[in-house]
From TrEMBL:
<dbReference type="Pfam" id="PF13174">
    <property type="entry name" value="TPR_6"/>
</dbReference>
<dbReference type="InterPro" id="IPR019734">
    <property type="entry name" value="TPR_rpt"/>
</dbReference>
<keyword id="KW-0802">TPR repeat</keyword>
<feature type="repeat" description="TPR">
    <location>
        <begin position="22"/>
        <end position="55"/>
    </location>
</feature>
<dbReference type="InterPro" id="IPR011990">
    <property type="entry name" value="TPR-like_helical_dom_sf"/>
</dbReference>
<protein>
    <recommendedName>
        <fullName>Tetratricopeptide repeat protein</fullName>
    </recommendedName>
</protein>
Length: 331
């Protein structure tokens, strides 16, 4: 980070001891960013760039703020401008990260690999490698079906989803069982089945299944989220926290997976962490999930934002009328 400097002007006997320059504004912007005051951080960073428009570090930091508030296109526009006037290598990783958030995985992979080619031991080299691993995992989870199978699978998925979002576990169970029989290679229904089993009262069987799954794939997002919730519901906080700690290091690419992590953190009373995850979700992509509104409003209420809790609860009830039958975030 640049050292904070100032300019001193001597006008006769009148000494103006300090006139802020670009480095000062940059430092103030970083401080505001670290305190998660993103609007203020952007104002300081804009002033810094006005003072030093050719300083790539300032523009990169501003792009990071845009990324944090979900303005990925604006962030990439800044970074692209930097690359047009300089070869500031960090831009390649930052662009890759933004593309990943936008779901443009091919572009994300290209820029992450470009960064590693140029800076194999750079500051973001480990982050770039992890991003590429996430993209590969995401690719692995995309399964190939012929068109007829896709249509049939979609019907099962939507029906199961409908009942699970309404927490109608007994109705969801037979549908998921049939889906597993017809599509045994598809992984998500197996975790949905474990969840439905648990909340239908078959807790031991559900936990046993998830332990089998996580032995096969220790990085499974669905096993980590399910087991965290299962043990929390059983009041085994020590085991719950074991899986929560693993989840805190997971930042999925797709919105539905981001939502799964956020809901899990909320359901296990990790409200501050849950709130940050909910804020990073593109609402337009999860509007069909009643759980988004249910747990976002509960989270907002618990971190001391009752107005926001009420806003999301009302919005959720308008889109998903069955939520109105629940007690709301304040209960």
């Amino acid at each position: 980070m640049p050292q904070v400097t100032g300019q001193i002007k001597n006008r006769g006997n009148n000494i103006i001891p300090y006139i802020p320059d670009g480095d000062f504004y940059f430092t103030k912007g970083v401080e505001a960013f670290q305190n998660r005051k993103f609007d203020i951080a952007l104002k300081w960073m804009k002033k810094a760039i006005e003072q030093k428009p050719n300083e790539p570090l300032f523009q990169c930091q501003m792009s990071v703020i845009y990324t944090e508030i979900g303005a990925y296109h604006a962030a990439n526009q800044l970074l692209t401008n930097v690359l047009q006037s300089s070869d500031y290598i960090d831009c390649y990783y930052l662009i890759a990260n933004n593309y990943a958030h936008l779901g443009l995985l091919t572009d994300a992979k290209k820029y992450a690999n470009t960064y590693l080619d140029k800076e194999p031991e750079g500051d973001f080299s480990e982050d770039a490698k992890q991003l590429l691993e996430l993209i590969e995992i995401d690719d692995d989870e995309v399964e190939d079906f012929d068109l007829e199978d896709e249509d049939e699978l979609l019907i099962y998925q939507e029906t199961a989803f409908f009942h699970m979002e309404k927490m109608e576990w007994e109705k969801a169970l037979p549908i998921i069982e049939e889906m597993i029989t017809l599509f045994p290679e598809h992984q998500l229904p197996k975790h949905d089945y474990a969840q439905a089993l648990f909340f239908s009262g078959q807790t031991e069987k559900a936990i046993e299944l998830e332990h089998e799954f996580i032995e096969e794939d220790p990085r499974s997002l669905y096993s980590l989220t399910n087991l965290a919730v299962f043990y929390y519901e059983l009041n085994d906080i020590e085991k719950c926290n074991k899986y929560i700690q693993s989840l805190l290091n997971v930042y999925p690419i797709h919105e539905q997976q981001k939502l799964r992590v956020a809901v899990t953190l909320a359901r296990t009373a990790n409200y501050n962490e849950a709130y940050n995850r909910f804020r990073s979700i593109a609402k337009g992509k999860v509007k069909n999930h009643a759980s988004y509104y249910r747990w976002y409003s509960i989270t907002a209420f618990h971190i001391g934002e009752p107005a926001k809790a009420l806003q999301y609860w009302k919005e959720g009830c308008n889109l998903h009328p069955h939520l109105a039958n629940e007690s709301g975030p304040w209960n």
